[in-house]
Amino acid sequence: MEMKSFQCAVLLILVVGLAGCSGLSPSESTSYPTGYNESGIVDPELAADQHATALSEHDNYTERMRITSPTLDGFVTTTIRTDTVENRSAAALEINNSGETFMDSKMYHDGTKRYTNTQIDVYGDTYATGNESLSSFQDSLVNTSQIDNWLANISFEAAGTVTRDGATLYRYNSTGVDDPEAFFYTTEFVTIDAIESVDSTLLVDEKGLIRVFEVTVTHSSDGETEEGTISYRVTDIDATAVEKPDWLGAAKAYAEPNGSEPVVKKQ
């Protein structure tokens, strides 16, 4: 089962985003990351591109994303571990609905091929394999255009600096949302009457790497007040190990000898 189909099933509603803290006001001589200044984000596209560039300069790192949705009555969590030196990556995706795990998917990329082990409700273990570049694998989970969209549709203002693990981070707080449709996908079953509040914080380091981005959106829907959140974090920079999963042998056993299309078979 393709990861992209997972995303389509998951992102029926909500947001996508990242979290923060307080600190001292930068001086006029402060050198801000590309796409930012003392007032806020001046170029979301450049800021998103710089985030990707800054990430690529590290040997390894972990990305964590969590989405909560009142409409789904649950949450979606994604953890991506990447080792750029070994040219491999591993990811875990969980979809929880009404307190129960609806889907638990684990993925591994060895630099040239993707392997997936998925458990969906009553279907049991399902394996998929397919040829795919590492960059495409990573983009299917979190990509630059998503980050650009997040940054472009929230108004931010600078809120000083904080220090985390010895690194100086610039803090930006939200002042409002420019385009609610950028954070909500509505269907005939879901209506959003009004956005009541948006609370978002972004922490970015001096090189433009977004360490934390978090957004909480409160809205009214059919007379009810509901809240959705998204949290994105980059952690364990240059301290992330990507190990081969114990299910890799089983996934390889189902691989087709030819072709690039993934093959899915039950265990």
Automatic annotation (TrEMBL):
Pfam families in UniProt: DUF7537 (PF24381)
Protein name from the UniProt record: Uncharacterized protein
Origin organism lineage: Archaea, Methanobacteriati, Methanobacteriota, Stenosarchaea group, Halobacteria
